[in-house]
UniProtKB/TrEMBL annotation, chain A:
Residues 14-389 form the tRNA-guanine(15) transglycosylase-like domain. This is Queuine tRNA-ribosyltransferase accessory subunit 2. It comes from the Eukaryota. It is found in: Cytoplasm. Its cofactor is Zn(2+). Heterodimer of a catalytic subunit and an accessory subunit. It comes from Galleria mellonella (Greater wax moth).
TrEMBL record, chain B:
HAMAP family: Q_tRNA_Tgt. Its cofactor is Zn(2+). Keywords: Cytoplasm, Glycosyltransferase, Metal-binding, Transferase, tRNA processing, Zinc. Its EC number is 2.4.2.64. It catalyses: guanosine(34) in tRNA + queuine = queuosine(34) in tRNA + guanine. Belongs to the queuine tRNA-ribosyltransferase family. GO terms for biological process: tRNA modification. Heterodimer of a catalytic subunit and an accessory subunit. It is an enzyme of class 2 (transferase). Zn(2+) binds at residues 311, 313, 316, 341. It is found in: Cytoplasm. One of its GO terms (molecular function) is tRNA-guanosine(34) queuine transglycosylase activity. The lineage of its organism: Eukaryota, Metazoa, Ecdysozoa, Arthropoda, Hexapoda. This is Queuine tRNA-ribosyltransferase catalytic subunit 1. It comes from Galleria mellonella.
Amino acid sequence: MRFIINQAGSGGERIGSLKGFVKISTAVIETPASALFTQSGSVVHLTNEVLSKVFSNPKLLWVPLSKSYQLETGLKAQGEGVAKFAGLQNHLTCVTLHGASEITPSGHFESDSVPLWTKNGKKMISANRYMDLMEVFKPDIILAIADGHTSLDEGSKRISKALDRTSNMLNMCVTRHKNSTCLQDSSLIGVIVGVGEERKCEQSIQNILTYKENLSGVTLEGITDGSEESLTVPLEKLEAIFKRVGDALPKDFLCIIEGCWNPAVVVTAIEHGWDLFDGSYPLKLTNAGHALALQLDVNQDNKELCILNLNDESYKDDFQPVLASCECLACKKHTRAYIRHLLNTREMLASVLLSIHNLHHFDEFFHHARLHIASRTFDVFKKHIIKQYDFYKQNKKDVPIPTIQDVKTSKKKEKNKKRRVSDDDIDNVVKSDNSL
Amino acid sequence: MGAKSLALSFSVQAECNVSRARAGLMKLPHYEIKTPVFMPVGTQGTMKGLLPDQLETLDCEIILGNTYHLGNRPGTEVLEKAGGLHNFMGWNRGLLTDSGGFQMVSLLKLAEITEEGVKFKSPYDDSEIMLTPEKSIEIQNCIGADIIMQLDDVVQTTFQDYDRIKEATERTSRWLDRCLKAHKRPTEQSIFPIVQGLLNKDLREQSAKDHMTKNVNGFAIGGLSGGEAKDDFWPMVSLGTGILDKNKPRYLMGVGLAIDLVVCVALGIDMFDCVFPTRTARFGCALINKGQLNLKQKQYETDLNPIDNDCSCSTCKNYTRAYLHCIVTLETVACHLISVHNIAFQMRLMRTMREHIEKGTFPQFVKKFVNELYSDGNYPTWIVNSLNSVGINIVRK
Ligand SMILES: [Zn+2]
Ligand SMILES: [Zn+2]
């Protein structure tokens, strides 16, 4: 893979493209961009068939190993890598250790390995083991294994350890990457950790730069440990970090930010030269029953909140699309009232429709960001987005959320709730002889 | 020849010259349905995570909604404002709703049935609700499905008390009259009466004959598929199709297992519904001609075949059993993928039967199907007997 900067904006923002992928030679990912977040290799809630109704061109899939570890046996049997195995061979993949928004237990580290929290519990992963897995997953982009799941106010001792461990593991990753024939089609990315402490962070960057020739870019960890609190850092503080770290990096590096960052943070990061985001934000909205509804036209004010909480009863007879200007399948064919009904009845189609809309709209948001960089008006766009997000933060109202995360949790919740008539009940009384 | 009405016209296109099977066209206000047809169940105005677009791709021509659930959520007020369920859920093809009675009686132990209707406590807010025939039709008129069901007096299929069964059967006929009288949209929606009588031959015959005297566009056979022995089940179906007007569609409620579909098509049934194909998908069960695959089983861990090599659904085109094994009961996607396949399976089976009826090769198809399913030649008696009764002779090897 090659990362090419096509145009710089008036600030640090830039338009680039990822191309030259070996698996799909014609694929081009224009940056700034967001990847699509996956679990078990699938874009969450969307099958191949439905995803192809949202995006017709190749996208970058974000594959956290923690949520796809169980694919290993099947992947080995098939031998063609995670995208093909998950039925998404028309897309590109980027594998990382954890999703940045996962809440993981603290501790459990060993000198040469880090804990991976999978659905089947803890697995200790060394750099060697990690690279073994990469040879099986065969991603287009590999984020090096690291100890980066810490928040900005993490203690100094812990950060020192994280730094050492990350540095040792990167060394191993680089060596393995150089010597593996089957990983020559994958690009390796270094991981910046310990961002909360300026000197440690510098060290982390310096360490990565020793391998400059072997790496295609960096990703910024060490800001969030996945918790809600670690995400509520004031925008100014984040901006200072984005600028400080961004300025210290070689311009031809692909710069990635992991974590569930809202649009205001995203435009701020873009302004300081950050190119790629992990896609966990639209998923978080979807799982909460929220729809992103940004006004992307800088000449128009948003007459509503930029995030709609469709759990709210006020939408029960609102027969408008989620966003009138949106061209996605969910907006063209369905209404807020219908999605609200699906949320209210905890039907899976709610997550499907919200995913379709949120992924499409988040993608459009990046498309508009690129347009503004190209026309050197990015600061106008940035202010326009931050204004909408600030207005949302001040005016949102909290509505209890019936989350639909996966089949299992929703079933559990069903049981915990007061007895209600559910599909299950009907099914239970229909036919006892229905099994072959 | 056939039933002609603005709300439904049915014409038999081809008949099997051995069995009672027939292929027909049923013209509904929203869509023209090719029968025999299987109707997937979308209880709350949605089909287990599938987009209406996907259902169209799967060739679904008509789906089912549950009146009881829809009447509660989103409720008639919202549905009315939306202009009916078709608009609300973005589905432009055929829709059928049940009466709501079945759910109540089977789910709510406290339901009390009187001549007036079914009285029960709302599971939503504990208030007392009376579902009368008039109320059921009022809700169904509001939902706006192409075909709607009369409220029937439901007794559990394996129930034995003759007097109660008799009462229920006769009451069902009386309630039919009330439903027909309360019906506000007869040019847009057809009420199907439900043949009752459980496993009692005389009562069922009486029920079917009563319904035959009414001005209706089609018939349903209810009160079966509730845990009774198969040997008791098929004669009741056969009795129904023997009496009911040949020129009108006959709908067998709650039946959807492949072998049951094949046998009952041979007995002259045109429409089926069942939650089974989509419900079982949730647990990782995929339907195939030989039965079903439980994809959770370890044997599929490295199986790189699609669910079914002969299936052309989007799941079988893109996904292996090994991958599905990794994600069943874990990701919502797994449920969607298997639902797609299972619905495709049902649709393909119905399409195949239609084609064979049209070509005059239906009996051969049935023999081949049964042979494949019971490859050891150990055919269950009920299958041998039911098929023999309509001239398709299969013999145990
Ligand atoms: Zn949209
Ligand atoms: Zn299939």
